[in-house]
Specification:
445 residues, mainly alpha, Serine Threonine Protein Phosphatase 5, Tetratricopeptide repeat, 25 helices, 75% helix, disordered N terminus
């Protein structure tokens, strides 16, 4: 799930169901089943169960009782029992449109988007004038990444109900994900106009402004989101991300701290707080946060890559190789991770494996100067000086100020006995990077 989305797992559609009790003795059971102030969820379940088991109720009334009990089960996070009750409700009353909608929500909460869409489609067939069905199906298409189909459905929802703030919000998500931030902002603004008390609407508009690099408006929206909901971890996270982008590291750190305080399992907040610690030069704390991020979200390849870079910077090349390998396992065509592993393997002497990695990276990005530099370094360690010089030449043709390539070429030229050329390249490299000799000595043969 995108950390910027509001995706409630259940929509409260329990307004008047039109239930007519069949006998006065059932009044108490219906009162409990409907719920309300002073009635606990267990009491609701008991009341609905009594109605369901009664022989005095019509099939339609029992369908309503199943529908309400399913809602309570969903509120208790017992989604499978909720689905089972909605199955019964639909069997008893195939025209109960909201039962399809809520079952779709339940399936979506389980990650079964296709079955959710099927239920929303059935809801639309039963109640084509209900904007909720189109809104929910549009939301599901958003989750699938089918943003054009989402917009089609959300357009209809808004046509049916021009004051449906949530539909504008969801269409804003669609446009933002398509890269049309201006239309996204327009939709979020309409949602805010219709419902100015929803913190998520301000949060998402802030995100759209940030993607336009309009950080002034973005931060103002995050501030308003936090004012409306001081416990909205997502708004603290987004504000922290933008503050870090602007170089306001201490303020970013405070917001990431607050996001994690509100949601201790917020993996992305740990990962981005790690980047703040890294930017501040506190590598131990950065590594600790990356460790926690990856414990919570072991499929986050960007955090593996970033942690591998920290290990590399500490000359802990074996741990760096492990992290780069994890990135490559998840994404075999990640050219950056292949290049980084090439360089780390070359440093520790795994030269043939390093060469294979550089070749694989260059097959994806043939004109990447840094990877040509890494392969040149690998050839240098292999003693293949002509091949090393050829790669350094190619790297410098792309980036003439790449000090490592100038220095590596100078070393290869010196090994070949071309002292004059070596002297020129080594001097040019040192002029670009005063510490290049020291840095190279830590890696080179």
């Amino acid at each position: 799930m995108n950390p910027s989305w509001r995706m409630p797992t259940w929509l409260a559609r329990l307004a008047v169901c039109g239930v007519a009790s069949a006998a006065p003795a059932q009044d108490l059971n219906w009162t409990l089943c409907r719920g309300g102030q002073g009635i606990a969820q267990d009491g609701q379940v008991a009341g609905c169960t009594a109605v369901i088991q009664s022989r005095q109720e019509s099939a339609k009334n029992r369908a309503y009782a199943y529908f309400i009990r399913a809602y309570v089960f969903a509120a208790q996070s017992d989604v499978d029992r909720a689905i089972a009750d909605l199955d019964q409700a639909i069997a008893l009353d195939p025209k109960l449109a909201d039962a399809y909608g809520n079952r779709g929500n339940a399936y979506r909460s389980k990650g079964d988007i296709e079955r959710a869409i099927a239920d929303y489609t059935q809801m639309i067939a039963v109640a084509p004038d209900d904007a909720n069905g189109y809104n929910d199906r549009g939301n599901a298409y958003n989750e699938k990444g089918e943003f054009d189909r989402a917009i089609e459905d959300l357009d209809i929802a808004i046509k049916i109900d021009p004051k449906f703030a949530f539909a504008y919000y969801n269409r804003g998500i669609s446009y933002n994900n398509k890269g049309d931030q201006d239309r996204a902002i327009a939709d979020y603004s309409e949602a805010i106009k219709l419902n100015p008390r929803d913190a998520f609407y301000f949060n998402n508009r802030g995100k759209a402004y940030a993607e336009k690099n309009d950080f002034e408006h973005a931060l103002a929206d995050y501030d308003q989101a936090i004012k409306l909901d001081p416990k909205l971890a997502l708004a603290f996270y987004n504000r922290a991300t933008d503050l870090r982008t602007q170089g306001q590291l201490d303020r970013a750190l405070a917001d990431f701290d607050r996001a994690i305080e509100l949601d201790p399992n917020y993996g992305s907040a740990y990962g981005n707080r790690a980047r703040v610690w890294r930017d501040k030069g506190d590598i131990d704390r950065a590594l600790a946060d990356f460790n926690e991020s990856l414990r919570l979200n072991p499929s986050n390849k960007l955090d593996y890559l970033a942690r591998g870079d920290l290990f590399f910077g500490r000359a802990d090349h074996q741990h760096a190789i492990v992290d780069y390998s994890e990135v490559i396992r998840m994404d075999p065509r990640h050219a950056g991770a292949l290049n980084n592993r090439c360089q780390a393997r070359a440093i520790v002497g795994q030269l043939q494996d390093a060469l294979a990695d550089c070749n694989a990276s260059l097959a994806i990005r043939p004109d990447d100067a840094n990877t040509l530099d890494s392969r040149g370094f690998t050839y240098l360690k292999l003693g293949e000086f002509d091949a090393a010089i050829a790669d350094y030449d190619a790297a410098l043709k792309i980036n003439a100020r790449l000090a490592s390539s100038l220095y590596g070429r100078g070393v290869a030229e010196r090994r070949k006995g071309d002292a004059a050329a070596a002297e020129r390249d080594l001097a040019a490299a040192t002029a670009l990077s005063a510490n290049i000799a020291e840095e190279f000595a830590k890696m080179a043969p």
